[in-house]
Design brief:
Length: about 250
């Protein structure tokens, strides 16, 4: 099982969980030295935005029966002023990077007639939150790619799942770049963001859901993580399409 973005947060927790369940785990990161203390079988350099790096890691890993595509980042900024270079960077990492690695492992899975692709997405792959729009857009695109892959590769024995946590206490939000000017008119909305993000789950809870999904003979396409994610995604399904979801929750 190859995991991208295993140096910290959710990816690290997934590596620990899968290893603890007896799976052969290949942990990867842009800086492999950050993986030194992980109890895994292999530690490899892999930058999902670099084709040569992806090709080398897949070659070094050998047979890969499961890909856990986790590498990703987020930013905080209003769409009016977010640098487009940051939006492009998120898509390169969160969306195209995931597809790049999937393209690398799929030929062998298809020829073998079996394989698993597990994409770590977010509830923001099905709804949007203000000030996190670029991240949400990258995850909506990721989910479109994942569902397409499920249709295209299912005939060849490849099973695709998308894991959808809500807010995660992984440190990712704290590490996010923030693009707000002094006295920015969107600052009150940014300050309300924690309330809109709702209850958080731990990285370990996400990791357990990923492991459970991998171990299911017939995993579902979309897998919410925990009751908070299930509730908000159900509310999104039931909400009218005539206005933005969550608009009534925003008071700024």
């Amino acid at each position: 099982m190859l995991i991208t973005g295993a140096s910290k947060g959710i990816g690290r927790a997934i590596a620990v969980e899968l290893s603890g369940r007896g799976h052969r785990v290949i942990a990867t990161a842009r800086r492999p030295e950050t993986l030194a203390d992980l109890p895994v079988d292999q530690r490899l350099r892999l930058d999902v935005t670099d084709q040569e790096s992806v090709d080398q890691a897949i070659q070094d890993a050998g047979d890969i029966d499961v890909l856990v595509s986790n590498a990703g980042e987020t930013v905080r900024a209003p769409l009016e002023s977010v640098p487009l270079s940051e939006v492009e960077r998120l898509f390169q990492l969160n969306t195209l990077g995931a597809l790049r690695v999937a393209q690398g492992v799929l030929p062998a899975m298809r020829e073998r007639g079996a394989g698993r692709l597990v994409f770590v997405s977010s509830i923001q792959g099905r709804l949007v939150l203000p000030m996190i729009g670029p991240y949400g857009a990258s995850k909506w695109a990721l989910e479109a790619l994942a569902e397409t892959l499920a249709i295209e590769t299912g005939h060849f024995g490849v099973k695709v799942s998308v894991v959808q946590p809500g807010a995660v206490s992984s440190g990712g939000a704290e590490r996010a770049k923030v693009f707000l000017k002094e006295n920015d008119p969107y600052l009150p909305l940014y300050e309300a963001l924690d309330v809109l993000r709702g209850e958080s789950v731990t990285s370990e809870e996400v990791a357990a859901t990923v492991a459970d999904t991998i171990e299911q003979p017939e995993p579902p396409l979309r897998v919410p993580v925990g009751a908070p994610a299930e509730r908000v995604l159900q509310a999104r399904k039931e909400a009218p399409e005539s206005e933005p979801f969550l608009i009534a929750e925003i008071n700024w």
